[in-house]
Amino acid sequence: MAPSLSTASDSWDVINFAVDQGHGVKGLADLGLKTLPNQYIQPPEEQITNSTVVDDDAIPVIDLSNWPDQKVMNAICNAAEKWGFFQIVNHGVPMQVLERVKEATRRFFGQPAEEKNKHSKDNSPSNNVRYGTSFTPKAEKALEWKDFLSLFYVSDDEAAALWPSACRNEAIEFMKESEVVIRRLLEALMKGLNVNEIDEAKESILMGSKRINLNYYPKCPEPELTVGVGRHSDVSTLTILLQDDIGGLYVKKLNSNEWVHVPPIDGAIVINVGDALQILSNGRYKSIEHRVIANGSRNRISVPIFVNPRPSDIIGPLPEVLQNGEKPIYKQILYSDYVKHFFRKAHDGKETVDFAKI
Ligand SMILES: COc1cc(/C=C/C(=O)SCCNC(=O)CCNC(=O)[C@H](O)C(C)(C)COP(=O)(O)OP(=O)(O)OC[C@H]2O[C@@H](n3cnc4c(N)ncnc43)[C@H](O)[C@@H]2OP(=O)(O)O)ccc1O
Ligand SMILES: O=C(O)CCC(=O)C(=O)O
Ligand SMILES: [Fe+2]
User: What does the record give under GO molecular function (predicted)?
Assistant: First the structure.
């Protein structure tokens, strides 16, 4: 049972309640706490302050309505090189699909903790379905103010058997409806690297597996002391991110200490390059650090689809990128080793990609 607000202000086991019993930060927020539990207080250097945020610059917004258009393809490659992040509009994924998956996310997290916790690491019958809170609580010095459901796609049959019914159909629909645009983006990015055909092997490395996460950031007491998600880059090839209208995602500008906000645009999808594509492109396309603030007045949701190599793929700089004598800066690595390395430690900015450096 959840503690009362008066119990909550005494010393009680926050970790046991939020992590082990599966109440998550939503459970903490529902208690109406007035102060942030100590376990969520981030060190000052990780707290997000206005001093490093700039508002005179923004990630590109790219209109895909005239596909295929060389100018648009160039804009995609330039954005991937200079920002690692961009937004797309007129992308072809129907608005109703986007609305349905956002609604399903709210429905899943609106359920009682006992229901959500059936999908926790300890209770889920499969590693492919995981409900949790923060990022990797056992390895973190300070927790993050976020609950998540992470769904690794294997097949429709497996999803029908294992994914939570509160959001299963909508999550699959979003994944399927975004396939065309994912392929287009990857084709454009590959052309920019002199890869003119995506054969079977490249298809596996670029988009052989997918994971969809549903993220829930409840409103937070003392939001300035914590983070929604700490500084990290994604380990994917590309991430297709749907956010609601609240805002709070910040992206680090290349070669600087400045951060820019990613403003919510109705109907837009945020795209970012992940570590796998940075490695495949030998550093040409940038997997950029990003983070999410906690919000003191409203709940926020987001739904990233991580497009990845298959776990069994070996990834390294593509031969086409090295054909003119360019030196590889990354070694060949087994993708699942890379991902395990990422998941076993707390968020630490761009450190993960060093694991693959020569
Ligand atoms: C959650 O908050 C996040 C997430 C992110 C994610 C960003 C991405 O880019 S996700 C894309 C990742 N790529 C893939 O999923 C495709 C490839 N998949 C694999 O290689 C494997 O499925 C695997 C992920 C490595 C799992 O392999 P398995 O053999 O089953 O290994 P395990 O022992 O189960 O897991 C290893 C280790 O990782 C932890 N873990 C696994 N899955 C998740 C998950 N979805 N979320 C969090 N942690 C996970 C697991 O607990 C294990 O750690 P232990 O300490 O328990 O050993 C970005 C930002 C966020 O805030
Ligand atoms: O919630 C967001 O806007 C971004 C979340 C994120 O970076 C992630 O899940 O990898
Ligand atoms: Fe991310």
Answer: 2-oxoglutarate-dependent dioxygenase activity; metal ion binding
